[in-house]
From TrEMBL:
It comes from the Bacteria. Residues 1-92 form the ABM domain. This is Antibiotic biosynthesis monooxygenase. The lineage of its organism: Bacteria, Pseudomonadati, Pseudomonadota, Gammaproteobacteria, Oceanospirillales. It comes from Halomonas salipaludis. GO terms for molecular function: monooxygenase activity. It holds the Pfam family ABM. InterPro entries: ABM_dom, Dimeric_a/b-barrel. Keywords: Monooxygenase, Oxidoreductase.
Length: 107
C-alpha cells in the first residue's frame, strides 16, 4: 500500500529544511516490519510543494508501526512542524492494473 501526503513549505523556509527531517524520520521508520521505502517529490512549478509517498507491505503493517510510537520519530516530526503544513492525501492499495505501452517496463 502507499501512504501519500502533501507538504507545503511555509514562508521563510525551504524544502531542504523539511527534507532533512524527512530523511532522519524515514531512516527510522524504514526499520519497521513491512516498510518498503519512501519518496519525496518536489512539484515542478512550485518548489514549496512536496508530495511524500511511503510504501508498505500492507495497511496493517503501517498501522502496527503507528501503534508503537517511537519517541525519536515523534521528536523529529515535531521539530519539522514550524517549517511546513502537512495534509494527508490518503492510503492507497497497490494498483489493480498498470497500463504500460507495449515493450515498456515499470520502474
Amino acid at each position: 500500500m502507499k501512504y501519500i501526503f502533501e507538504v507545503h513549505i511555509r514562508d521563510g523556509y525551504q524544502a531542504e529544511d523539511y527534507a532533512d527531517a524527512w530523511v532522519r524520520a524515514s531512516e527510522l521508520i524504514q526499520q519497521a516490519p513491512g516498510a518498503r521505502g519512501t519518496e519525496l517529490h518536489r512539484k515542478i512549478d512550485d518548489p514549496n510543494t512536496l508530495i511524500a509517498i511511503a510504501h508498505w507491505d500492507s495497511k496493517a503493517s503501517r498501522d502496527a508501526m503507528e501503534a508503537q510510537p517511537n519517541q525519536e520519530i515523534k521528536e523529529i516530526i515535531r521539530s519539522a512542524a514550524p517549517c511546513c503544513e502537512i495534509r494527508l492525501i490518503g492510503e492507497f492499495e497497490e494498483p489493480e492494473w498498470v497500463v504500460m505501452p507495449t515493450g515498456a517496463s515499470p520502474n
